[in-house]
Amino acid sequence: MATKAIVLLAEGFEEVEAITPVDYLRRAGVEVTTVAIGESLTVKGARGIPVVADTTLAALTKQGKADASSWDAVVIPGGMPGASNLAASGETGALLKEMAVTGKLVCAICASPAVVLAPLGLLSGKKFTCYPGMEEKAKEGTWSQDRVVVDGNIITSRGAGTAGSFAVAIIGKLLSEAEGKKVAESVLL
Q1: Where would a tag sit more exposed on the chain, N or C end, judged by fewer CB atoms within 10 A?
Q2: Which domain holds residue 87?
Q3: Which residue, 161, 154, 187, 184, is CA-closest to 171?
C-alpha cells in the first residue's frame, strides 16, 4: 500500500513551505494530496501565487477520508494569514489531533507550530522549532533554534529557507533516512 500524505492549504499560506514538501515527497514516491481548507480548489498564497489543490477538506469529509486512517502524514505550511486560517478551522484541528493521537506524522513549519499546533496542545512535552519570535505564542513544549526538529511523530521547521530540509526529514520518517538522503542529493540540497 502506498504511503500517503496530505498537505493543507489555507488562504495566505507560504508557497515555498507548501510546494517544496509536495515536490520532494512525490520525488520519493509518496502519494501526496493537496487539500484546500476553503470551498474553492484555488488557494492564494501569501505572495499572491494561486495554487490549485487536488481537493477540499469538505470533499474529503464527505468521502470519509478526513481522518487519520486515510493518511500517514499531514503537512501544514506557515505563512500569514495562512497559519491563522488553518488554526481557525475546526475541521483542521480535529484532523491534526486525531493524526497526533494515532501516531501519524504531524508536520508544521514557520508560524504553524506556534499558531496551529500549540493551541491544540500538540507541542506539550515536545521539543519544537518555528519561525523566530513565534515561539513566544507557544506556552507548552521546548523551543529549539534547530532548522528542523523531529520529536516522535511531530516534525517542525523554521521557515521558507528550511523547507527542503523539512521535506527531507518527513521523507526520513515516512520511508527511510536513505530515501530522504537520495532526494536531498538529487535536488542538490
Answers
A1: N
A2: 4-186
A3: 184
3-state secondary structure of 146: coil
Q: Which of 36, 66, 106, 110 is catalytic?
A: 110
- What is the domain count for the chain? 1
- Residue 1, pLDDT > 90, answer no
CA 12 – CA 67 distance, rounded (Å): 24
Whole-model pTM: value is 0.97
Q: What is the pLDDT of residue 139?
A: 87
Number of alpha carbons in the 13 Å side-chain half-sphere of residue 7: 29
Cα–Cα distance for residue pair 15/48, rounded to 1 Å: 9
- What would the mean pLDDT of 93-116 be, rounded to a whole number? 97
Name the burial class of residue 23, with classes exposed (0-12), middle (13-18) and buried (19+) by CB atoms within 10 angstroms of its CB: middle
User: Looking at residue 103, what DSSP letter applies?
Assistant: T
CATH code of the domain in which 138 resides: 3.40.50.880
Does residue 130 carry a catalytic annotation? no
> Distance (Å, rounded) from C-alpha 131 to C-alpha 145?
9
Cell representation of residue 61:
469529509
127-153 per-position pLDDT tens digit? 999 999 999 999 899 999 999 999 999
CA distance 127 to 104: 17
